Batch of 2 targets.
Target 1
Amino acid sequence: AAVPTTCDALVIGAGPVGLFQVFQLGLQGIAAEVVDALPEPGGQCNELYPDKPIYDIPAVPVCTGRELVERLLLQIRPFAPRWHLGQQVTQLQPRANGGFDVATSTGQAFIARTVFIAAGVGAFQPRTLPAEGIDTLAPAQLLYRLPPAGTLAGRRVLVVGGEDAAVQSALALADAPDMEAPAAITLLHRRATLTAEPALLARLQACIDSGRVVFQVGQVLSVQQAAGAVAVQVADAAGQTLDLAVDALLVQLGISPKLGPISQWGLAMERRQLVVDAARFETSLPGLFAVGDVITYPGKKKLILCGFHEATLATFAAVALLRPDEPQLLQYTTTSPRLHQRLGVA
Ligand code: FAD
C-alpha cells in the first residue's frame, strides 16, 4: 500500500467552493491537498457551463464559468496547493487521536488533521455507453473524454452523443491540423435533432457539408474486437442494422454526478446533503468540515457566493482546532504584513 501523505488540510472537490477553501486556508498559513474526480479543477462551472455568463459574483459584473475558475486558480496560486486529480475519495475514517484516514480510487492515502468536503452534487462521472461487448474494448478504444491533441491521429473515430459536448468533440477533431487529425469522424446520435448551441450546430453543418464529419442517426447495439479495430453494430432510425468499422469510440453522453461514497461515511445527512452548523460548517464529526452545494443548514442557498462565506468560516473553525493556543485575530488582507507575506506580496 502507498505511504500516506500527512497533511493539515485535505479538500475534497475542486469546484469553485473547494478552490476558495484553499484560498482561505492559505491565508491562515495552512497548506492544502486537493482531490477531485475530474482531471481538471472547476467543478460545475467548468463541467456544466464553461461558456455561460455568471452575473452574481461580488464585484465581478460578468464572467463565464471557465473564467471564474481561472480567476480562482490565479488567486490561490501563492498557496501552491497539491493537486490529486482524476481520482475519487472513496474512504474516510476518523483516527483514534484525531484527524482522518482518507483513501482515493487510485490508491492514494492521506492522514489529514482536518478535511473539507466541497463535493457539490457529487463526483462527476461520464455516463457510460450501455452496449453489448463494451467491456471488451481496450482503454484506447473506448474514451469518455476528448484526449490530448493528436492522440486520435489517423484513426477512425465514432463520437457518440447529441449535445454540446459531443458536437464540440466532433468539431475539435475535425478542426485538428492534418498531422493530428483522425482519418474519419462519425457523429452518432439516436435522434436526427442535436441539442447543442446554434453556433456549434452551424459549424458542424459546415463540416458535414464538406464531408469532414459524417452524421449518423442511430443507437449502438453492440461492439466487438475485429482484428485491431472495433466492429460497431448500430440500429439506425428505420430499425435497420448497420455495421461500422472504427478504431475508437468517443462517448460523450454527458456526465452524472454521484455522491457515492460520501453517503457511506456515517455522517448526518438530510435529503442527500450533509448537515452542518452555520457557524463552523462542521459535520457530525469534529474536524470534518463541509461547504458549498453538498451541505444543508437553515437558510442554505446553493450559490457560489454562499459557498465562499462557508469556506471562510470553516477555515476559522479549523484554525481553532489546529492551533488551539493561538488567539484568533481577524486580519485584513489590505493591511496585515503577515497576510501579505503569505500572499507573496510583501
Ligand atoms: P461543485 O461545483 O459541484 O464541485 C464539486 C467537485 O467535487 C466536483 O468537481 C466533483 O467532481 C468533486 N467531487 C465530488 N465528490 C468527490 C469525491 N468523492 N472525490 C473527489 N472529488 C469529488 N451559482 C451562482 O452562484 N451563480 C450562477 O449564476 C450559477 N449558475 C449556474 C448555472 C448552471 C447551469 C448550474 C448547473 C449551476 C449554476 N450555479 C450558479 C450553481 C453553482 O455552479 C454551484 O453552486 C457551485 O458550483 C457549487 O460549488 P461547489 O464547489 O460546492 O461544488
Target 2
Amino acid sequence: MKMKNLIWSILLVPILIAGCQPAKKTDEEKSAKPNVVVIYMDDLGYGDLSSYGATELQTPNIDAIAEGGIRFTNGYASSATCTPSRYALLTGSYPWRNKDAKILAGSAPLLIGTDQPTLPKMMQANGYHTGVVGKWHLGLGDGALDWNKHITPGPNEVGFDYSYIMAATQDRVPTVFIDNGNVVGVDANDPIEVSYKENFAGQQTGLENPELCRLKWHHGHNGTIVNGIPRIGFMKGGEKAKWVDEEMSGHFLKLAQQYVRDHKSEPFFLYYALQQPHVPRTPNPAFVGKSGMGARGDVILEADWTIGEFMKTMKEEGLLENTLIVFSSDNGPVLNDGYNDDAVEKLGKHKPSGPFRGGKYSLFEAGTRIPFITYWKGKIKPQESDVLVCQMDLMASIAKLIGVEAPKTDSQDMLSALLGESDKGRENLIVEANSKTAFRKGNWIMIPPYEGTPILKQVNIEIGNSKAYQLYNIKEDIDQQNNLATTNPEKLKEMLTEFENIRGK
Ligand code: NG6
Ligand code: CA
C-alpha cells in the first residue's frame, strides 16, 4: 500500500466506524421531536384540585404540575361526557359531526373510522412511538365482537403502536383489561360473553340480588355483579380475566411508567387515561378514608399520588426537559352517578364544579370547563392563562410542535398559547352535551332552546335545557345566573348567526 493510501485509510476508519453506529442524538435533534404525554382524568371537575381553588382537598402532585406550567382557566373538553370528548381529543373533530359519538356501551363497535386522521396516527407517521394506557371508551371491533379472540379494530388500528386498556368504563362490562387487542387472562375453558340486552341464565345481578352487592346501586348499574359491585350490562365467564377494582390505578401506573422506560430513547406519545373519579369509586386501601369526603375524595387523592409517581419516573428518566405534558379531564364532575357511595353525603364544603353552574352532562359551564394544564420543564414559563383552548386543538397544535402539516379537521393550532408564548386563543368554541350544543365566543355563551328536563334528577345536575334562548356574559356572571337573551337581542343574533354558520341550521 502506498503511503498516501495508508494515511487515507487511517483517517477514514474512525469516520466509517462512526457512520455504522447509531448516531447519538444532539440536544437540537431531541428537541425537534419532543415527547408528548396527555394525562387524562375521568369526571374530574374544575374545582376538584387545590390548584383550581379547592380548599377541602389537597392535590399536591397535580398542583406541582400546575405551578411549574400553565394553569389554564378557560380550558375546555369538547363535551360534557366521556366518549365524545375522547373522540374530539384523538380525531380533532367536533363530536357532533358524528351521530354515534355518544356514551358507548362496552360492546359498541369502534367509533373512530380506521381511515380517519387521528392524533396518534399523525405522530406515528412522523417517527413517534405511540401508546395508550387506561380508559378507552371509544368502542372496539366492527360489530361482531368475540372477546375470546384477537379484538380488532381498536386502538392499534387508529394510531397506537401499544395499547393496554379497559374497553369502556369501570362501571361497564366486560371488567377486563385488553393488551394490544387480547383480553388479559382469557381462558378457552371459561369464555367471556357480554350482552347489553339480556342477562345470561343463572348469572346474579344487582337487580335481583342486591344483598350480594357491597356497593349499592342508586340508578342504572344493576346488571352483572363483579367483585361485589353491580355493573352496567351483563357478563358471563372470564373469571381469571376480571380486574381487581382497587388495584386498577396502580396497575395502569406501572404500565405507564414501563411504557416511558421502554420508549425513552425514541420520540413517544403517551395517552395515559386514568379512571378516577368516575364510578365505581374504589380507592386502594391505602387511600380509604384519607379525604374525609368518602370514596370520591379518596380516589382523587389516589389519582394525585399516582400522577406524582408517574412524574417521578419522568424525572428519573431525564425526560421532563424534552416532554410536553398536558393534564386535563374528559368532562365535569358528578356526585351520585349511580351508586350510593356517600359522594353527596360527605361532600361538606367542597365544590367540584368550582365557581361554575352545572356539572357532567351539562351545557352549563361546569360540564366542559375543566382543569387544563400544560407543563414542559425549562421550556414553559410558569403562569396562569385565560386564553380559550380546547382539547380538540391538541392535534393541530402538536402538528405545529413536531413540524408537520395537520390533517384538516376542527382542531386549531394553539401551540403558542399552550406554550405560554401568546395570549391568542380560539375565537369561538361549540361545546356539546348529550348531542345538544352551546356556543362560546369571547366572554359570551349562548345556549339555544332545548326541550327536555332542566334538571337531570338522578344526578341532581342542571343540564341547560330551557324553552328560551340563554345568553350569558361569563366574565361578569361566572355562574350563569343572568340570562341576557331578551335584554341584548343584538348580541344574541350575532352569536346565533355565527353558531349556525359553523354548526349548520
Ligand atoms: C351513564 C351512567 C353513568 C356513567 C356514564 C358514562 C347510568 C344510569 N349512568 O349512562 O354512571 O357511566 O354513563 O360516563 O347508567 S362517562 O364519563 O364515561 O361519559
Ligand atoms: Ca367522563
